[in-house]
Every structure is written in structure tokens, then in C-alpha cells.
Design brief:
The chain has 15 helices and 17 strands. By secondary structure, it is an alpha+beta fold. A hairpin with a 2-residue loop joins strand 2 and strand 3. The radius of gyration is 23 Å and the shape is flat. The N terminus is likely disordered.
Length: 329
């Protein structure tokens, strides 16, 4: 990490300006940068050794499009995926028009981003102007998962009222497609609303952990919380929100950013005896991992002091079967 930062810091203002210009939508896309983008989109996580690639990735790191994992490894973020896909398709030719005409097809208003990438076949490009002309909105078609023990209905922007109580009681969870999320106006509770809403980072932890009484559980991977954020805004502010994720520097940092976007205080949902998990199943921090103490409240710093001082972390999966939990952290 120190090598990466030193290389990035050696760039003078002129070099940085050139790199930013390279990313401009009005300039031709550098072939090497395009290849780097495509590697990230394909692999999600890559390791680089060349100086120019490290410099480029550290510039993208500043924009939040990638995260540094150490040892020259970089991870693509949800924001980076969206930007790179749009940036790549915005720098091509207009051959898509010819393709659509020859196949006698018309793209739908809501188009799956991977389906579109197959149509483009890496040899064709679609500009942002063409996307506007076709009124195309790209979707990854992910799903939002919910668990709840209270009867409720989902009120849509169209005025439809969808009763999901039976699905909760019979199947244990409800799956909402990404394309439907923006159309959700609010959740109506038949009796009393839940006291707590808990967002869970890991899918396995989400399905395995005990569902507390009077609680709504949401599967919200920290790499992409957009769908969960929309649904949480459909809830009233008097429903207390907590986050369950790895007890690690990276997860705490992302959870704090999540809380900031929600404009809610960060509350961590943890086993009452989490220090026992730290002692028995805790893992040592990597050399480049540091606790983001500045993002924690004074109370959280005090409560997590044992964890911070011991420079260890706890994966969320090992805590899911705990019997007693707390929201106070």
C-alpha cells in the first residue's frame, strides 16, 4: 500500500490533469485504460504490477471506483462498475443502430446491462446520446431479500397494495426485484410496525441468523446498498436501524458511509458476548488494515476498545447463532 500511495503522490499536477482528461467523456478512451476497466468488470478483483496501472488505479481509488486490498490487488466497487460500463459504451461507434435494424429488434426501456454487453459483443459501442434516444435504463437485475415476522403490505407508486404477509409466514422471506424497488412508496403494517430494522451484509448470515421479534431483516451487501437504502426510506424514522456485518476496519468504514447516506446514526447489531467470539475466533488484522476510529462515536470507541487494542477482527458468519444480541454499540 505504501508503494502505491508513494507512486500516486509522485504525480505532479500536470500528470494528474492528463489522467483526468483521459477519463473525460469528450476525449477518446485510452486503450490501456479501457482494457483495465474491462478486466475489472470481468474479474471484479485484479492484481497489477506495472507502474502506470498502479497510478491509474489509485486515481480511480480517489473516486471510489475501486478499493485497495493491498499487495497490488484492487477490488471493483458498485459505483465503479456503473461508471466503467457507462464510460466504455460512451466511447464507441454507432454500429448499434445498424445491428438493431438488421435484427429487426428494439431495445426495451429497462435493459439488463449484461444482455446489452452481449449485444455489443465488445466490438460495438452505444453512446450516452443513443441511450437517451432509445430511452434505455441499464439494470443489473439484482434482488432485495427481506425477512419479517409481522404482517404487512407494500404500497406501490401505482396505487397497488401487495400483501406479503403470507409469503413471510410460509416461505420466511420475500424477494423484491431491483426493477420494482423504485416503485415502492411505503410499507404498511397491519398491526404494529417493527421496533427494529437490521441490515445484514452477508447472504449466508442473513438466511441463517435468528429473526428477532418485531424486526425487519434486509440483506444489504455493503458493496451495493442502493436497493436497501430506497426501502429504508420507505420506513418511518421511529423504526430503529442497526447494521450487522464483519467486525472489521473495512466493514466499519463502509457501514459508517452507509449510515451517512441514510442520515441515521450508526448502530451495530452484535452478540452480547462478542468479546468471547473475538477471543476464540478472532483473526489478526492485515498489515494495511487500520481501525477507522474517527468514524466511530465515543461510546462505540469505548465499547470496541478491546477489539481495537488487540488489532483483531471477527467475521460475521461466526456470530450468527448467538443467543443474546445488543443494538447499543
Amino acid at each position: 500500500m505504501e508503494v502505491c500511495h508513494k507512486l500516486c503522490n509522485t504525480l505532479n499536477n500536470r500528470q494528474k490533469a492528463c489522467c483526468r482528461q483521459m477519463m473525460s467523456k469528450t476525449e477518446p478512451l485510452n486503450t490501456a485504460s479501457a482494457t483495465l476497466m474491462e478486466r475489472l468488470l470481468s474479474k471484479r478483483q485484479i492484481r497489477v504490477h506495472k507502474r502506470w496501472a498502479i497510478i491509474q488505479l489509485n486515481l480511480w481509488l480517489q473516486h471510489g471506483w475501486v478499493t485497495a486490498q493491498g499487495e497490488g490487488v484492487y477490488q471493483l466497487t458498485a459505483e465503479g462498475e456503473q461508471y466503467f460500463r457507462q464510460h466504455l459504451v460512451a466511447h464507441g461507434d454507432s454500429s448499434l443502430e445498424s445491428l438493431l435494424h438488421q435484427l429487426d429488434i428494439q431495445l426495451p426501456e429497462k435493459c439488463n446491462s449484461r444482455i446489452l454487453s452481449f449485444l455489443l459483443n465488445q466490438d460495438r459501442r452505444i453512446s450516452e446520446e443513443q441511450m437517451r434516444e432509445h430511452e434505455i435504463t441499464l439494470h443489473r437485475d439484482s434482488y432485495l431479500l427481506l425477512r419479517c415476522n409481522l404482517p404487512c403490505s407494500i404500497f406501490m407508486q401505482s396505487g397497488e397494495l401487495i400483501d406479503v404477509s403470507t409469503l413471510f409466514s410460509v416461505w420466511g422471506e420475500v424477494v423484491i426485484p431491483e426493477r420494482v424497488i423504485p416503485d415502492i412508496k411505503k410499507i404498511l403494517w397491519k398491526n404494529t410496525p417493527p421496533r427494529h430494522v437490521i441490515t445484514v451484509d452477508n447472504r449466508d448470515a442473513f438466511v441463517s441468523m435468528m429473526l428477532p421479534p418485531d424486526t425487519l431483516l434486509l440483506h444489504a451487501p455493503l458493496k451495493d446498498t442502493m436497493m436497501a437504502e430506497h426501502l429504508l426510506r420507505a420506513l418511518t424514522d421511529d423504526i430503529h436501524w442497526s447494521q450487522f456485518a464483519d467486525l472489521s476496519p473495512d466493514s466499519l468504514r463502509k457501514s459508517a458511509e452507509f449510515a451517512e447516506r441514510l442520515q441515521r446514526p450508526l448502530s451495530l447489531y452484535l452478540p452480547e458476548n462478542w468479546p468471547d467470539y473475538l477471543r476464540l475466533l478472532g483473526r489478526a488484522l492485515e498489515p494495511d488494515e487500520k481501525w477507522p476510529v474517527s468514524t466511530l462515536s465515543r461510546k462505540q470507541q469505548i465499547n470496541l476498545q478491546f477489539l481495537i487494542e488487540n488489532q483483531r477482527k471477527i467475521p460475521q458468519q461466526v456470530m450468527v447463532y448467538a443467543k443474546k444480541w445488543v443494538h447499543e454499540l
